[in-house]
Amino acid sequence: MFFDGTKGALYVESxxxxxxxxxxxxxxxxxxxxxxxxxxxxxxxxxxVYSNRRDSFVAKTLQWARQNETLKIVDDQISNPTWARMLAxxxxxxxxxxxxxxxxxxxxxxxxxxxYASRLEWAKEILALDANPLEQVVRKMExxxxxxxxxxxxxxxxxxxxxxxxxxxxxxNIPDWKFSLKLAMNA
Length: 187
What we know:
CATH class: Alpha Beta
Largest sheet: 2 strands, parallel
Strand content: 5-15%
Number of helices: 7
Number of strands: 8
Structural class: alpha/beta
Helix content: 25-40%
């Protein structure tokens, strides 16, 4: 991610990026290179993207629930669960409006699922919407902290994006993450 997670509020496009890891640094470098080229561009920052067609937190949560009686899920990582199809559809609508439309709105925007949640809240919603709940063996979900799961890359705790500028500039309504998840789980 682009931000260090210390703001404690939604990140907006004008917030100064402060990546915590190489992944975030490379994403920021890509943004800066596109902006330096000064063409007609749209950069959409997003968060916690998931799909039913690839490995994601949604797929992992369902797998864990079928293999473990107890799940430990972090409650201190907070962001916007974002369905890949929603991103694709929003992008498609914008591109269909044409080059002049894009030229008038060129820039960097936050585009992520509406609202935000912790990984624990997200996992609970995933399991509640599971199309095959009888396959779940999980009996208990325990709260964990990021520090309980050491990883080589540092992750921001609060990385939720504010998408108000996107909504107003493109006149598009970003669905709430729970609504999108329900659609995704039924797709």
